[in-house]
Amino acid sequence: MQTTDETRSEAIQRLQQEWGLKFPEDCTPVSLPLRDIHIASVVFQPRELFSDRHVKSLLAAIRSQGGKPLDPITVWHSGKHWYVIDGHHRLEAYRQFNTEYPKRKLNRIPVKAFRGSLAEAICVSAKANSKDKLPMRQEDKSNIAWRLVCLDDPSLTANGIGRAAGVSRRTVQTMRKTFKSLNENRHKDELLNLTWAAASRISSGETLGEWDEDAAEKQGAAWAERLGKQFGKAFAASPRAAAFALRYYSPDLPQRLIETEVFQEAIEDHFIARQREAGVPEEEIFY
What we know:
about 10% strand, about 55% helix, five-stranded mixed sheet, globular, alpha/beta
C-alpha cells in the first residue's frame, strides 16, 4: 500500500509521526504476510525509474522454482506499519505472481527486519541499492545523499552518508553547506523535494526556470556526436592529447572541467577503485 500523491517531505513527515506509536510484539520476524508490507518508494526507493524489466526477470525466477520465494526483503517498522526498505522489485514480482497464479498465492514472504530510526532506515535502503546488481546513476546517488543531508539528523555523519549513497565525503560536505545556506530562507520540507542539481543551482543564484534539467546533457550529447564525426575514436583513444587540445582551446577549461559534477564523479570513482585495488576494507574506504 502506498499514498501515491504524497511528496517526499509529506511522506517523511508522516513516517516521523508514526515513529514509536506502537511496535509489534515480534520486532524481528523472518516472514510476514504480503498484505502487511507497505511501500513508501518516494522515501526508500533510490532509483527514480522503476525497472519493469528487472521485475519480469524476478517473476521468471519465481516461476522457474515452482513458486518458491526469493531472498528475504528488508523491512522496517515505523511504529504503525511494516515498510519495505530494500526489495521493492521482489515485492512487486510476488504481487504479480499472485495475480498470475491465484491458486498458488504466496501469502507470506521471507523478510529481514531492520531496527533503527527513520534516518538509519533510509541509509540502509540507499546502501543496499547502491550495491545492488542494477546500476544506479550518479544522479540518483547524489539525490539520495542530498535527501539524507536534508533530514538534518545529527546521527548521520558525512562518511556515513557518503558510504550509504555512494558519493564522496567532500560532496556531502558541499551539500551540507548548501543546505545550511538555503535553509536560512527555505523550509526543510521544500529542500527535501528538490533534486541535488536543483538545490545546487538555486544556491548559485539561478532560478529553476532558467535551466532545463537535462539541457547540459543534451548539449553534451550533440557535441559528442560532432566530435565523433570529426575525430572518430582517436579523441577518446588518446586522452593525453585530448587533454592538451582542451587546454589549447581554453587554458582554464581543464580546471573548470574538474569542478563539474561529471569530472568530480570520475575522479572520486577512480580514487575509490584504487583503494579497493589496494585491499582497503570496504568500511575503511575514504569516500
